[in-house]
Amino acid sequence: MAHALLSIPNLPISSPTKKISTLSSPRAAPRACLNQSPQPPNPSLLTSITNLLWGPSLPPGLLISTVRTAWHSTWQLMMSQLAPSDTSGRYSRPPSRFRWANFSGQIPTALHLYVGLPCPWAHRTLIVRALKGLEDAVPVSIASPGPDGSWVFNDIRGRDSDVLLPGPDNANGCRNLREIYKLRRGGYDGRCTVPMLWDTKTKEVFCNESYDIIQLFNSGINELARNPGLDLSPPALKGKIEEWNQIIYPHVNNGVYRCGFAQSQEAYDLAVNDLFSTLDMLDEHLTSSRYLCGGALTLADVCLFTTLIRFDLVYNVLFKCTKKKLLEYPNLHGYMRDIYQVPTFA
Protein backbone atom coordinates (compact mmCIF):
# COMPACT_ATOMS: atom_id res chain seq x y z
CA MET A 1 0.00 0.00 0.00
CA ALA A 2 1.30 3.44 -0.88
CA HIS A 3 1.80 5.91 1.92
CA ALA A 4 -0.40 8.98 1.58
CA LEU A 5 0.87 12.51 1.74
CA LEU A 6 0.31 13.79 5.27
CA SER A 7 -0.39 17.12 6.94
CA ILE A 8 2.05 18.52 9.52
CA PRO A 9 1.20 17.37 13.08
CA ASN A 10 2.83 18.39 16.35
CA LEU A 11 6.43 17.34 16.95
CA PRO A 12 7.20 14.24 19.10
CA ILE A 13 10.30 14.20 21.30
CA SER A 14 13.00 11.66 22.27
CA SER A 15 16.75 11.71 22.94
CA PRO A 16 19.80 9.48 23.59
CA THR A 17 22.08 9.93 26.59
CA LYS A 18 25.55 9.24 28.03
CA LYS A 19 29.07 10.38 27.07
CA ILE A 20 32.25 8.65 25.93
CA SER A 21 35.66 10.10 25.18
CA THR A 22 36.99 8.05 22.26
CA LEU A 23 36.63 8.53 18.52
CA SER A 24 38.00 5.35 17.03
CA SER A 25 38.25 2.43 19.51
CA PRO A 26 36.19 -0.68 18.71
CA ARG A 27 33.09 -1.46 20.74
CA ALA A 28 33.63 -3.48 23.88
CA ALA A 29 30.00 -4.65 23.78
CA PRO A 30 27.27 -5.16 21.18
CA ARG A 31 25.22 -2.20 20.08
CA ALA A 32 22.31 -1.24 22.31
CA CYS A 33 19.12 -3.16 21.48
CA LEU A 34 15.63 -1.74 21.59
CA ASN A 35 14.72 -3.56 24.81
CA GLN A 36 17.78 -2.28 26.69
CA SER A 37 17.16 0.73 28.93
CA PRO A 38 19.97 3.30 28.91
CA GLN A 39 21.64 4.16 32.19
CA PRO A 40 21.20 6.70 33.63
CA PRO A 41 17.55 7.26 32.54
CA ASN A 42 16.83 9.72 29.78
CA PRO A 43 16.43 13.38 30.83
CA SER A 44 13.27 15.29 29.95
CA LEU A 45 12.64 14.50 26.30
CA LEU A 46 11.19 17.88 25.57
CA THR A 47 14.13 19.63 27.22
CA SER A 48 16.58 17.46 25.28
CA ILE A 49 15.28 18.31 21.84
CA THR A 50 14.93 21.98 22.78
CA ASN A 51 18.56 22.01 23.96
CA LEU A 52 19.70 20.34 20.74
CA LEU A 53 17.92 22.68 18.37
CA TRP A 54 17.49 25.99 20.18
CA GLY A 55 19.84 25.99 23.18
CA PRO A 56 19.23 25.28 26.89
CA SER A 57 18.06 28.74 27.95
CA LEU A 58 14.26 28.47 27.94
CA PRO A 59 12.29 28.34 31.23
CA PRO A 60 10.37 25.04 31.62
CA GLY A 61 6.99 26.75 31.42
CA LEU A 62 7.73 28.08 27.94
CA LEU A 63 9.21 24.93 26.43
CA ILE A 64 6.13 23.39 24.84
CA SER A 65 4.71 26.54 23.27
CA THR A 66 8.16 27.70 22.20
CA VAL A 67 9.05 24.42 20.49
CA ARG A 68 5.73 24.29 18.63
CA THR A 69 5.96 27.92 17.54
CA ALA A 70 9.61 27.57 16.55
CA TRP A 71 8.91 24.48 14.46
CA HIS A 72 6.16 26.24 12.54
CA SER A 73 8.60 29.11 11.89
CA THR A 74 11.30 26.63 10.88
CA TRP A 75 8.91 24.91 8.49
CA GLN A 76 7.96 28.23 6.89
CA LEU A 77 11.66 29.10 6.50
CA MET A 78 12.44 25.76 4.88
CA MET A 79 9.51 26.03 2.50
CA SER A 80 10.57 29.53 1.44
CA GLN A 81 14.29 28.71 1.05
CA LEU A 82 14.55 25.00 0.29
CA ALA A 83 11.43 23.60 -1.38
CA PRO A 84 11.47 24.06 -5.18
CA SER A 85 10.15 21.12 -7.18
CA ASP A 86 10.34 19.97 -10.79
CA THR A 87 7.39 19.37 -13.12
CA SER A 88 6.78 15.89 -11.64
CA GLY A 89 6.54 17.25 -8.09
CA ARG A 90 9.96 15.99 -7.03
CA TYR A 91 11.95 18.19 -4.68
CA SER A 92 15.03 19.68 -6.34
CA ARG A 93 17.59 21.32 -4.05
CA PRO A 94 19.19 24.43 -5.57
CA PRO A 95 23.00 24.33 -5.67
CA SER A 96 25.02 26.50 -3.29
CA ARG A 97 26.28 29.63 -5.00
CA PHE A 98 29.42 30.28 -2.95
CA ARG A 99 31.82 27.32 -3.05
CA TRP A 100 35.27 26.90 -1.52
CA ALA A 101 35.85 24.26 -4.20
CA ASN A 102 35.65 27.05 -6.81
CA PHE A 103 37.90 29.44 -4.88
CA SER A 104 41.41 29.92 -6.27
CA GLY A 105 42.87 32.59 -3.96
CA GLN A 106 44.36 32.46 -0.48
CA ILE A 107 42.04 31.24 2.25
CA PRO A 108 40.88 34.20 4.38
CA THR A 109 42.30 34.36 7.91
CA ALA A 110 39.38 36.28 9.44
CA LEU A 111 36.36 34.03 8.96
CA HIS A 112 33.03 34.21 10.78
CA LEU A 113 30.53 31.33 10.76
CA TYR A 114 26.78 31.91 10.56
CA VAL A 115 24.51 29.01 11.56
CA GLY A 116 21.00 28.15 12.73
CA LEU A 117 20.65 25.41 15.35
CA PRO A 118 17.66 23.61 13.74
CA CYS A 119 19.61 23.19 10.47
CA PRO A 120 21.39 19.82 10.02
CA TRP A 121 23.71 21.31 7.37
CA ALA A 122 24.83 23.96 9.86
CA HIS A 123 25.07 21.37 12.64
CA ARG A 124 27.77 19.46 10.77
CA THR A 125 29.93 22.61 10.56
CA LEU A 126 29.59 23.21 14.31
CA ILE A 127 30.64 19.61 15.01
CA VAL A 128 33.82 19.74 12.90
CA ARG A 129 34.62 23.23 14.21
CA ALA A 130 34.49 21.84 17.76
CA LEU A 131 36.38 18.62 16.99
CA LYS A 132 39.21 20.56 15.37
CA GLY A 133 39.31 23.19 18.11
CA LEU A 134 38.47 26.14 15.88
CA GLU A 135 36.09 27.93 18.25
CA ASP A 136 38.49 30.82 18.89
CA ALA A 137 39.75 31.04 15.31
CA VAL A 138 36.29 31.00 13.70
CA PRO A 139 33.72 32.86 15.83
CA VAL A 140 30.06 32.04 15.32
CA SER A 141 26.76 33.91 15.21
CA ILE A 142 23.56 31.89 15.65
CA ALA A 143 20.32 32.91 13.96
CA SER A 144 16.77 31.72 14.68
CA PRO A 145 13.90 31.00 12.27
CA GLY A 146 11.80 34.15 11.90
CA PRO A 147 8.02 34.26 11.40
CA ASP A 148 8.46 35.57 7.85
CA GLY A 149 10.56 32.62 6.68
CA SER A 150 14.00 34.16 7.22
CA TRP A 151 16.96 33.68 9.56
CA VAL A 152 16.92 36.46 12.17
CA PHE A 153 19.15 37.55 15.06
CA ASN A 154 18.18 38.80 18.51
CA ASP A 155 19.88 41.07 21.03
CA ILE A 156 19.95 38.53 23.86
CA ARG A 157 23.41 37.23 24.68
CA GLY A 158 23.79 33.90 26.49
CA ARG A 159 25.18 34.10 29.99
CA ASP A 160 27.35 31.01 29.45
CA SER A 161 29.86 31.64 26.67
CA ASP A 162 30.47 27.88 26.32
CA VAL A 163 26.84 27.20 25.37
CA LEU A 164 25.66 27.78 21.81
CA LEU A 165 22.56 29.96 21.87
CA PRO A 166 20.73 32.10 19.31
CA GLY A 167 21.81 35.70 19.70
CA PRO A 168 23.04 38.80 17.87
CA ASP A 169 25.10 39.07 14.71
CA ASN A 170 28.53 39.36 16.29
CA ALA A 171 30.35 40.26 13.06
CA ASN A 172 28.17 42.82 11.31
CA GLY A 173 25.40 43.77 13.73
CA CYS A 174 22.69 42.92 11.21
CA ARG A 175 19.10 42.04 12.06
CA ASN A 176 18.81 39.08 9.69
CA LEU A 177 20.88 36.91 7.38
CA ARG A 178 19.69 38.63 4.21
CA GLU A 179 21.18 41.92 5.38
CA ILE A 180 24.56 40.20 5.71
CA TYR A 181 24.40 38.64 2.24
CA LYS A 182 23.54 42.05 0.81
CA LEU A 183 26.68 43.58 2.36
CA ARG A 184 28.86 41.79 -0.17
CA ARG A 185 30.21 43.71 -3.14
CA GLY A 186 27.48 44.00 -5.76
CA GLY A 187 24.74 43.04 -3.30
CA TYR A 188 22.78 39.81 -3.41
CA ASP A 189 19.21 38.77 -4.27
CA GLY A 190 19.45 34.96 -4.05
CA ARG A 191 18.70 32.39 -1.36
CA CYS A 192 20.11 33.34 2.04
CA THR A 193 21.03 30.05 3.69
CA VAL A 194 23.08 28.72 6.59
CA PRO A 195 25.75 27.63 7.17
CA MET A 196 27.67 30.54 5.72
CA LEU A 197 31.30 31.56 6.13
CA TRP A 198 31.87 35.31 5.99
CA ASP A 199 35.20 37.00 5.30
CA THR A 200 35.20 39.83 7.83
CA LYS A 201 38.09 41.67 6.14
CA THR A 202 36.73 41.83 2.60
CA LYS A 203 33.03 41.83 3.59
CA GLU A 204 32.37 38.93 1.24
CA VAL A 205 30.56 35.61 1.44
CA PHE A 206 33.36 33.05 1.31
CA CYS A 207 31.35 29.83 1.29
CA ASN A 208 27.78 28.67 1.94
CA GLU A 209 28.16 24.98 1.04
CA SER A 210 28.24 22.87 4.21
CA TYR A 211 30.42 20.07 2.84
CA ASP A 212 33.01 22.55 1.59
CA ILE A 213 33.03 24.17 5.02
CA ILE A 214 33.63 20.94 6.94
CA GLN A 215 36.42 20.00 4.52
CA LEU A 216 37.96 23.44 5.07
CA PHE A 217 37.70 23.07 8.85
CA ASN A 218 39.16 19.57 8.71
CA SER A 219 42.33 20.33 6.77
CA GLY A 220 42.29 23.78 5.17
CA ILE A 221 43.10 25.93 8.21
CA ASN A 222 45.05 23.55 10.45
CA GLU A 223 47.41 26.37 11.43
CA LEU A 224 44.48 27.92 13.33
CA ALA A 225 43.23 24.71 14.96
CA ARG A 226 43.91 23.49 18.49
CA ASN A 227 43.68 19.89 17.20
CA PRO A 228 45.55 20.01 13.88
CA GLY A 229 46.50 16.33 14.11
CA LEU A 230 42.88 15.15 13.98
CA ASP A 231 42.05 14.19 10.40
CA LEU A 232 38.44 13.24 9.66
CA SER A 233 39.32 12.57 6.02
CA PRO A 234 42.68 10.78 6.01
CA PRO A 235 44.22 10.00 2.61
CA ALA A 236 43.75 6.25 3.02
CA LEU A 237 39.99 6.70 3.51
CA LYS A 238 39.22 9.57 1.13
CA GLY A 239 37.88 7.26 -1.55
CA LYS A 240 35.56 5.44 0.86
CA ILE A 241 34.39 8.70 2.40
CA GLU A 242 33.44 10.08 -1.00
CA GLU A 243 31.69 6.84 -1.93
CA TRP A 244 29.61 7.03 1.24
CA ASN A 245 28.78 10.67 0.68
CA GLN A 246 27.55 9.84 -2.83
CA ILE A 247 25.02 7.60 -1.06
CA ILE A 248 24.28 9.62 2.08
CA TYR A 249 23.73 13.02 0.50
CA PRO A 250 21.11 12.21 -2.17
CA HIS A 251 19.35 9.35 -0.39
CA VAL A 252 19.43 10.34 3.32
CA ASN A 253 20.51 13.97 3.94
CA ASN A 254 18.52 15.20 0.96
CA GLY A 255 16.23 12.18 0.99
CA VAL A 256 14.23 13.37 4.00
CA TYR A 257 13.60 16.69 2.22
CA ARG A 258 12.53 14.85 -0.92
CA CYS A 259 9.88 13.15 1.24
CA GLY A 260 8.79 16.27 3.10
CA PHE A 261 8.70 18.60 0.12
CA ALA A 262 7.25 16.21 -2.48
CA GLN A 263 4.43 17.87 -4.42
CA SER A 264 2.88 14.72 -5.88
CA GLN A 265 2.03 11.25 -4.61
CA GLU A 266 4.37 9.67 -7.17
CA ALA A 267 7.28 11.86 -6.05
CA TYR A 268 6.54 11.12 -2.40
CA ASP A 269 6.36 7.34 -2.89
CA LEU A 270 9.62 7.35 -4.84
CA ALA A 271 11.38 9.42 -2.18
CA VAL A 272 10.12 7.25 0.70
CA ASN A 273 11.19 4.01 -0.96
CA ASP A 274 14.59 5.48 -1.82
CA LEU A 275 15.18 6.76 1.72
CA PHE A 276 14.19 3.61 3.57
CA SER A 277 15.95 1.20 1.22
CA THR A 278 19.13 3.20 1.92
CA LEU A 279 18.53 3.09 5.68
CA ASP A 280 18.03 -0.68 5.39
CA MET A 281 21.39 -0.97 3.62
CA LEU A 282 23.15 1.24 6.20
CA ASP A 283 21.71 -0.77 9.08
CA GLU A 284 23.01 -3.97 7.51
CA HIS A 285 26.46 -2.44 6.90
CA LEU A 286 26.74 -1.34 10.53
CA THR A 287 26.18 -4.89 11.73
CA SER A 288 29.93 -5.45 11.40
CA SER A 289 31.39 -1.92 11.32
CA ARG A 290 31.67 0.60 14.16
CA TYR A 291 31.62 3.57 11.78
CA LEU A 292 30.93 3.85 8.06
CA CYS A 293 34.59 3.50 7.08
CA GLY A 294 35.58 0.98 9.76
CA GLY A 295 37.06 1.87 13.15
CA ALA A 296 37.67 5.59 12.64
CA LEU A 297 35.09 8.36 12.72
CA THR A 298 35.17 10.41 9.49
CA LEU A 299 33.39 13.27 7.75
CA ALA A 300 30.96 10.72 6.32
CA ASP A 301 29.80 9.86 9.85
CA VAL A 302 29.38 13.54 10.70
CA CYS A 303 27.18 14.02 7.63
CA LEU A 304 25.01 11.00 8.41
CA PHE A 305 24.72 11.76 12.13
CA THR A 306 23.11 15.18 11.76
CA THR A 307 20.21 13.62 9.86
CA LEU A 308 19.88 10.57 12.11
CA ILE A 309 19.77 12.61 15.33
CA ARG A 310 16.72 14.45 13.95
CA PHE A 311 15.03 11.46 12.37
CA ASP A 312 12.51 10.28 14.97
CA LEU A 313 12.19 13.76 16.46
CA VAL A 314 11.56 15.69 13.26
CA TYR A 315 11.67 13.87 9.93
CA ASN A 316 9.48 10.91 10.88
CA VAL A 317 6.50 13.19 11.47
CA LEU A 318 7.18 16.68 10.16
CA PHE A 319 8.71 15.42 6.89
CA LYS A 320 6.36 12.43 6.51
CA CYS A 321 9.17 9.83 6.74
CA THR A 322 6.72 7.53 8.50
CA LYS A 323 7.52 4.08 7.13
CA LYS A 324 9.80 3.28 10.10
CA LYS A 325 11.41 5.04 13.04
CA LEU A 326 15.15 5.02 13.59
CA LEU A 327 14.43 3.09 16.80
CA GLU A 328 13.39 0.19 14.56
CA TYR A 329 16.91 0.00 13.10
CA PRO A 330 18.99 -1.54 15.91
CA ASN A 331 22.39 -0.92 14.31
CA LEU A 332 21.68 2.57 12.98
CA HIS A 333 20.13 3.60 16.28
CA GLY A 334 23.09 2.21 18.24
CA TYR A 335 25.50 3.92 15.85
CA MET A 336 23.72 7.24 16.30
CA ARG A 337 23.86 6.84 20.08
CA ASP A 338 27.55 5.97 19.99
CA ILE A 339 28.37 9.14 18.10
CA TYR A 340 26.06 11.26 20.27
CA GLN A 341 28.15 10.21 23.27
CA VAL A 342 31.19 12.06 21.90
CA PRO A 343 31.03 15.36 23.87
CA THR A 344 31.45 17.69 20.88
CA PHE A 345 28.47 16.08 19.12
CA ALA A 346 25.97 16.64 21.95
TrEMBL record:
<dbReference type="Pfam" id="PF13410">
    <property type="entry name" value="GST_C_2"/>
</dbReference>
<feature type="region of interest" description="Disordered">
    <location>
        <begin position="18"/>
        <end position="41"/>
    </location>
</feature>
<dbReference type="InterPro" id="IPR010987">
    <property type="entry name" value="Glutathione-S-Trfase_C-like"/>
</dbReference>
<feature type="domain" description="GST C-terminal">
    <location>
        <begin position="234"/>
        <end position="346"/>
    </location>
</feature>
<dbReference type="Pfam" id="PF13409">
    <property type="entry name" value="GST_N_2"/>
</dbReference>
<dbReference type="InterPro" id="IPR047047">
    <property type="entry name" value="GST_Omega-like_C"/>
</dbReference>
<dbReference type="GO" id="GO:0004364">
    <property type="term" value="F:glutathione transferase activity"/>
</dbReference>
<dbReference type="InterPro" id="IPR016639">
    <property type="entry name" value="GST_Omega/GSH"/>
</dbReference>
<dbReference type="InterPro" id="IPR004045">
    <property type="entry name" value="Glutathione_S-Trfase_N"/>
</dbReference>
<protein>
    <recommendedName>
        <fullName>GST C-terminal domain-containing protein</fullName>
    </recommendedName>
</protein>
<dbReference type="GO" id="GO:0005737">
    <property type="term" value="C:cytoplasm"/>
</dbReference>
